[in-house]
Amino acid sequence: MKKTVAIIGAGPSGLVAAKTLLRSQRCRFDVSVFEKKSTVGGLWAVDRNDGDPSQLLNANMPTNASRFTVSFSDFAWSSVDLTDPNRDRPQPSAPDGSPFVPMFPKAWQVQKYLQQYTKRYIPESVIFFNRTVTSTERVKSDVGSPAWKIKWRDAEGVSSGVFDYLIVASGFFSEPRLPQADLMSQHGGVKQVHSSKLRKLKDVAPEDPSASGTILIVGGAMSGGEAASALAFDLSDAEHAPGSKARSGLKIVQVVPRPFYALPPIVPYQDSDSNAPKFFTLDLTFYDLTKRPPGPVNPGEGRQPPEISNFSHNSLRTLTGGDQSEYSSPAVVAGDVYRPAFAAIQEWYPEFLRSGAVRAIPGRVEIIDRTEKQLSGPLDSLRATIIHDGKQDVIDDVVGIVYATGFKPTAALEHFSSDVKKTLEYDPECHRLPFLLGEESVLAPNVDHLAFVGFYEGPFWAAMEKQAEFIADTWGKSSAQGEGLHSEDLEVNRIEKLRDLRKAMLANEKDVPQYWMGDYVGIIEKLARKGGVTRNEVGLEPRTGPVFGSRYVSSFGDATEAQKLLDDLQQVRTDALQKGRFVARAAFRAMQGNWKIRRQLDSRLPEYPSGELIGIASFHPRRPTDGSYDAEYLYVESGTLKTQQGLSMQASRRFAYRYQELTDQITVWFVKEDGKTVDYLYNDLLFDHNPVDAWTAKSDHLCIADMYRSEYTFRFRGMHLRDFAIKHAVKGPKKDYISDTLYER
Asked: Which residue intervals are annotated with compositional bias (Polar residues) in the record (predicted)?
């Protein structure tokens, strides 16, 4: 006889739980998924045009983990139709003819993935949309075994049903956390928004384009970095895009409670201490099995020992090329490397911090109020008081506030009865650890037939998949034996450790890591062993290479789809190690910001001057002015040229630099007389795949009768450029010279 299972939530965790139970070979499950929205996706259920005010993600926000991590083991991204509904053209093709999938899909693309995953694996009759669960209560079934009475509300009113099992898959990010929510009502004249609702600068900036003041970001780490970067990018775009108007009076200040590492999604993978490292995605670089000590790989969780913290800091500093002391924000420099390392991942964020476009200051916002002068005038600015190490700092021109204070899961837990909450030691004040659960945060001690999927900070898709398989195996065994799972079967000792961890969280102890259950590799390896799943070495040496879901396909999975993902990873990794894939992207990102330049002009013709130019150059990020490109800079240069004849003159020039992920290429373009609008192509950079002491790229350009042969040389220090040079050899009827420019910070 089938066992009935109620699953709350149709986000990634609920969908993979439903699919896994439906494909179980040990036991037949009758699955019902309750979803309060009208579509699948959970957090990723976004409107392409950001038209839904309830959504918590910007539809165009890219993931900070690669498509290999943001996927299930047996559904390849190449099987997903990613046609953009906003563009009247099909999904582009990669150079090999396959459908092009960005390495870091956007939120609306993730939703498409989940919709098509659902269509492939889950019958329509399984998911009930627009149905909100209002209460869950432990009862006995008709045969006397543990069961759950579920009440729900939908268009037809309030209904209920009894199920043998209950899975909570409603996510850990059910509601934005606003620790200073009262301030938002007290100071209505200044725009205030949670980071999950921030889409553009106008959401938080004053309406008056000439207004000046500080946009304050409260909070660090992931959401704080994303918010700060988004606002800095909008300000840069407003100043440097064609036809736009600068908002030069606004500045961005981010208050961070602890130091953190600002990281891009592409980092050095091999030879990271050389001038010409190989690059790969940040997630798969960290998830490489070669980084683990010998023996079975088990997850580390909870409070972090000093030696592990020190190892993490050293690993991160290898990527960043140092301790970040060269940034304009000393708040990001970690002084104590024996405390857990924190990180924020966003493509443009590191260089915004370096340039000062985002100023990060240490501390916590104690209060936001008004000065006496502000009280007597219109409500157009506020005062923020920040406390750090017992000292007080004040910002008295706050004209907008973004609360990057994270989320809380408590709203998704209110359906539980008080006795269940008590048994699970529910603490609504501890948003990071509201329940104390058993092994890998799946099963609940002393609460039979209850399980959780993805219920912890930073859940990974493959980990959720393994949690679902663990549930199917466990409940399949207990069903076959005709009995439930009791507390003695769980790791009760873990609960003691979690009590201690929760106490440390509430006391803000220094050894609590950014993600207390963030050992993705350990979780996957341990749960795979429990399920009898053997790791696929995909042609690698044993126990090497990055961990991701398709290396651990179980009997629940589709081997054909999994092989597509394995082949994709193999190709990407080979291209990264042998063909310089990601180098162009890494170089383009690292060019952002301000540089000192020194140019030598060596002319062989007397009528064309030789000399030296000393000046400054800036690569200003802006939105691509051509939709086929993924990133764009306006390059602005100015300096003083001194010729060998003793003449001195001011010189300036502008270009547009573009990057396209589809071709993994950088291009350089002339701009029109307005100094902003892209004109015609100048250089198309082709990188040499076999660097010696630096990465080099070449390009030729014929300008009427003059041939420009160009060489770009990039020398890295970790993820940053130590320096780079551009050399143009120009020959024509009236030109014969070499221009050699060195760029240094």
From this structure: 307-322
pLDDT in tens, 586-614: 999 999 999 999 999 999 998 888 999 99
> Residue 518: beta bridge partners?
none
User: For the packed helices 461-481 and 12-22, what is the interaxial angle rounded to 10 degrees?
Assistant: 40
DSSP 387: E
- How far is Cα 221 from Cα 224, in angstroms, rounded to an integer? 6
166 neighbors 448 (Cβ within 8 angstroms): no
57 within 8 A of 46, measured Cβ to Cβ? yes
Q: What are the CA-CA distances from residue 20 to residues 35, 183, 276, 558, 646 (Å)?
A: 18, 45, 44, 11, 78
The band of 481, judged by pLDDT with boundaries at 50, 70 and 90, is: very low
Question: What distance in Å separates the CA atoms of residue 22 and residue 396, rounded to the nearest whole number?
Answer: 58
CA distance linking residue 111 with residue 118, whole number of Å = 11
Q: Which two tokens stand for residue 95?
A: 């150079």
Query: Mind giving me the DSSP string for 649-711?
Result: EEEEEEEEEEEETTTTEEEEEEE-TTSSSEEEEEEE-EE-SS-SSSEEEEEEEEETTEEEEEE
Q: How far apart are CA 3 and CA 169, in angstroms?
A: 18
Single-letter amino acid code for the residue at 238: A
Average pLDDT in the 166-178 region? 90
Q: What is the phi/psi pair of residue 616, to 5°?
A: -130, 155
Domains by residue range for the chain, with CATH: 3-175+408-534 (3.50.50.60), 178-260+329-339+341-405 (3.50.50.60), 583-744 (2.40.128)
Sheet containing 665-671: order of strands: 678-684, 665-671, 648-660, 631-643, 611-622, 593-603, 735-744, 720-732, 706-717, 695-703, 686-687
Q: What CA–CA distance (Å, rounded) separates 63 from 418?
A: 37
Q: Which two tokens stand for residue 311?
A: 């190892």
Other Cβ atoms less than 10 A from the Cβ of 3: the count is: 21
CA distance 532 to 529: 5
- The CB-side HSE value for 692 (13 A sphere, CA atoms) comes to 0
Angle at 17 between CA 16 and CA 20, to 5 degrees: 80
In terms of C-beta density within 10 A (0-12 exposed, 13-18 middle, 19 or more buried), how is residue 11 classed?
buried
Q: Are 4 and 163 in contact (CB under 8 A)?
A: yes
Q: Are 361 and 254 in contact (CB under 8 A)?
A: yes
- Tell whether the torsion through CA atoms of 50, 56, 59 and 61 is positive or negative: positive
Torsion of CA 659, 662, 665, 667, to 10 degrees: -50
Please give the C-alpha separations between residue 303 and each of 136, 294, 340, 498, 569, in angstroms, as whole numbers. Answer: 32, 22, 9, 9, 33
State which amino acid sits at residue 71: S
Residue 32 CA to residue 162 CA, distance in Å, equals 11
What are the tokens at 150? 């579920």
pLDDT per residue over 489-508, tens digit each?
Answer: 446 788 999 999 999 999 99
Task: Please name the helix (run of DSSP H) or strand (run of DSSP E) that holds residue 109, with its range, or none.
Answer: helix 107-121
- Bigger pLDDT: 305 vs 480: 305
Does 487 have pLDDT greater than 50? no
Helix/strand/coil percent split, the chain, to 5: 25, 30, 40
Please give the structure tokens belonging to residue 607. 């009528």
